[in-house]
Design brief:
binds nicotinamide-adenine-dinucleotide; 4 domains; UDP-n-acetylglucosamine1-carboxyvinyl-transferase, Chain; 6-phosphogluconate dehydrogenase C-terminal fold; elongated
């Protein structure tokens, strides 16, 4: 190969195939450097003529061998099945000192074509693929800015000459593209899902509709959604035919996956299975939001990354000492609500001074309840009795607190006065129909926005009646909402849940002297009772403690005690899972506090091993999986998590967010629709990961930093305060090497 000067980019580039991609590359290179010679070649003479006339190339050379002789770099942008014939022609030419690269959509087929023609993949061939394009084709569609701010994936092989790779990288960067590197197979699998599958679905949908006798009406009344969804069905049939054949194995896998999902959806519709339908749509919507936030973040972050809270960790660190993490969020909300409605004064210790629980506290102050604190975790509530709340001056703003909004809907619906519940932008997009519908069955009058979202406008003075409600989804929030409303209803209210849900409401109602009956999955109470004030020592939040349990397990030499941690069996699956992985965890001083079981938890570092996480432990550890997946990354062998679809609809799509971050740190993590496979035990690298504004993702990667060989930067970590105020200070105090950037 001719020696390349690092900075001197190729002075002459031959573009073979002057369609959308080839002509766009030619125009972009010319714009980057007017001195560079761009030579064109296409099997269609008319296309060559047009390319010259449009100024896409400096000239065209109808003899390929001559064109090759005049070029430093040869760029192939013909359809996939055209690659091998072009290689055959190139094999007749003198290629010494030249760099060959391509834009083909399938890298496995490109490499095979090269191998079959040249015997061995030439070391001067740099396979590439721009992740940019359009449904248009042909030389006229070329645009100089097509690749600007888009990714280009290069898939060099072991034998590929590094200087050739650098040259191709620089050429793409001169077009404004971001260059990434990937393995050939990985590229084909990823692209089969993200690009090839959507195209085949769009083609197939359009084809089905065209064949339909109603198609005339379908197209006449089609709206924007239809246009957006089917846009890519206007793409070049030859190109997509070639992609289908060239990436057959990965495309078939992706089609099978899609067909299985479609069949599941079909059966859910046939059986009117609301739970599956709602869960599927909600997961999909969240997934789309995650993707959209990735896109907007990409634009918004350009130049102003530093405005978001960024955490940084340094490698190493050993955890030691005794700490009490902040109080349980779920219990803090409920303590304020029941304390406010009780007769007498309730003193709450260990109250979580996070934004969500503080929003509930502020709401009850606005409802006329005398509440002192929080002061060092203590809140004193002078209860006003079941009928003592007063109409607030304005609407009640609940910030980001979904628990507060759903539980308060149940408590506000039976009051004598009108009240409106509002929240921040994110809460204003969350579905409230799951509580407003059963409440309406009880006789409540609640108006929402068209999509069933907040604000909730509640008309007071309604008399509620008890109902028996079968929850379509396992939701503690809905169950609690109905039980709280049931205290004001005539007769019995009972709620049946399809799976295990947190039982804090039942436990605390009993703590306040209200009789609640539990029979398997059915919880019931009678209306008309009263609540008696009590003292509540809010247990430390096991979800917050989980980060330190994992941290101490993976950081060699650690020995830490977490005091007064809530170990409610509907919440404490993290302890069982870590023990199955080999963690050294001892519980002591187990006791009941206000109806809630608590214990001190001592964790010493231990070698962890990968496990199949038992399904029955998934719902009782659902919030702890960000931390547990970090444990899996450090555990020797394979950890398999399945049955955790709900993780996709939390504050972020936690499966995707964790998989993205772990991969950035070099961990072998494969996301599944309902979980993840992590092959752990290999060194974890440093890097910059995005928490997507999700407090638990941010804290999980802070823990991962203990075992990383380099620093870990965690973006968008400002929401940690919603569940774990003071996390960074406490983590540093027990030995983690963590700080806020700057
Ligand atoms: P296109 O149909 O617009 O252009 C292809 C050109 O190649 C045509 O001018 C055709 O005459 C020419 N050609 C075909 N066989 C030839 C041969 N044997 N010798 C010389 N010329 C030949 O296609 P396109 O959209 O520019 O796609 C080109 C390549 O880029 C394909 O491999 C495709 O997979 C890849 N790609 C396309 C997109 C996209 O969105 N269109 C995006 C990324 C990558």
């Amino acid at each position: 190969m001719k020696k390349q000067n690092d900075n001197a980019l190729a002075s002459s580039v031959l573009v073979i195939g002057l369609g959308l991609i080839g002509s766009s590359f030619a125009l972009a290179l010319k714009r980057a450097s007017a001195d560079r010679l761009i030579i064109g070649y296409d099997r269609q003479r008319a296309t060559m003529k047009e390319a010259k006339a449009l100024g896409v190339v400096d000239y065209c050379q109808p003899s390929l061998p001559e064109a090759v002789a005049q070029a430093d770099v040869i760029f192939l942008s013909v359809p996939m099945l055209g690659m091998e014939p072009v290689f055959e022609q190139l094999a007749q030419c003198d290629l010494s000192g030249k760099v060959i690269t391509d834009a083909g959509s399938c890298k496995g087929a490109l490499v095979s074509a090269a191998r079959s023609v040249f015997g061995e993949v030439p070391d001067n061939l740099v396979p590439g693929h721009p992740i940019a394009g359009s449904e248009q084709s042909g030389v006229k569609a070329g645009r100089a800015d097509l690749f600007f701010a888009h990714h280009v994936i290069l898939t060099p092989l072991r034998q590929t000459n590094p200087q050739a790779v650098t040259l191709v990288q620089q050429l793409w960067e001169s077009c404004g593209a971001h260059v990434n590197f990937m393995g050939v197979d990985h590229h084909d699998q990823v692209l089969a899902l993200t690009s090839h599958l959507p195209h085949f679905i769009a083609f197939s949908l359009m084809d089905s509709l065209v064949g339909d006798k109603e198609s005339h009406d379908v197209f006449r009344y089609a709206a924007g959604g239809f246009r957006d969804f089917t846009r890519i069905a206007g793409s070049n049939p030859v190109m997509w035919h070639d992609v289908a054949i060239s990436n057959k194995a990965a495309v078939l896998t992706s089609l099978d996956m899609f067909s299985a999902g479609l069949a599941e959806l079909r059966s859910a519709i046939e059986n009117s299975n609301s739970q599956t339908l709602l869960e599927t749509f909600e997961r999909a919507r969240k997934g789309r939001e995650h993707f959209a936030s990735l896109l907007t973040r990409k634009h918004a972050m350009a130049g102003k990354k530093d405005e978001l809270a960024v955490l940084v960790t340094r490698p190493g660190g050993v955890l030691a000492g005794e700490v009490r993490v902040p109080g349980d969020k779920s219990i803090s909300h409920r303590a304020v609500m029941l304390g406010a409605l009780a007769q007498g004064t309730t003193v709450v210790d260990g109250f979580l001074e996070g934004e969500d629980a503080l929003a509930t506290l502020a709401a009850f102050k606005a409802l006329g309840v005398d509440i002192q604190g929080p002061e060092q975790g203590r809140v004193t509530i002078k209860g006003v009795g079941m009928r003592g709340l007063k109409k607030p001056e304005g609407s009640l703003y609940l910030g980001n607190a979904g628990t507060a909004m759903r539980l308060m809907a149940g408590l506000m619906a039976p009051q004598a006065f009108d009240v409106t519940l509002t929240g921040d932008e994110s809460l204003s997009n969350r579905p409230m129909g799951r509580v407003t519908q059963p409440l309406a069955d009880m006789g409540a009058m609640i108006a929402t926005e068209d999509k069933g979202t907040p604000p909730l406008r509640i008309t007071g003075g309604q008399s509620l009646k008890g109902i028996h409600y079968n929850l379509p989804m396992a939701s503690a929030q809905v169950q609690s909402c109905l039980l709280l409303a049931g205290m004001y209803a005539r007769g019995q209210t009972s709620v049946t849940t399809p799976g295990i849900v947190r039982d804090h409401t039942q436990r605390m109602l009993r703590g306040f002297g209200y009789q609640v009956d539990v029979d398997g999955q059915v919880v019931s109470l009678h209306g008309g009772g009263t609540l008696k004030a009590t003292a509540i020592d809010v247990p430390a939040d096991v979800s917050s403690a989980a980060f330190f349990m994992v941290a101490a397990s993976i950081a060699e030499g650690s020995d830490i005690t977490l005091t007064h941690v809530g170990i409610n069996p509907t919440r404490a699956g993290v302890v069982d899972i870590l023990r199955l992985m080999g963690a050294d965890i001892t519980l002591s001083d187990e006791r009941l506090v206000g109806g809630e079981p608590v214990a001190d938890i001592r964790v010493k570092s231990a070698p962890l091993k990968g496990i199949d996480i038992p399904h029955e432990l998934v719902p009782v550890a659902i919030d702890e999986f960000p931390a547990l997946l970090v444990a899996a990354a450090c555990a020797e062998g394979k950890t398999v998590l399945t049955g955790a679809k709900e993780l996709r609809v939390k504050e972020s799509d936690r499966i995707q967010a964790m998989a993205d971050g772990l991969r950035i740190l070099g961990v072998d993590a494969e996301p599944l629709p309902d979980g993840m496979i992590v092959n752990g035990g290999n060194p974890i690298g440093g890097g910059t990961v995005d928490s997507f504004g999700d407090h638990r993702i941010a804290m999980a990667f802070a823990v991962a930093g203990l075992r990383a060989t380099g620093g870990v930067r965690i973006l968008d970590a400002e929401n940690i305060g919603t569940s774990f105020p003071g996390f960074v200070a406490l983590a540093a105090q027990v030995g983690m090497r963590i700080a806020e950037e700057g």
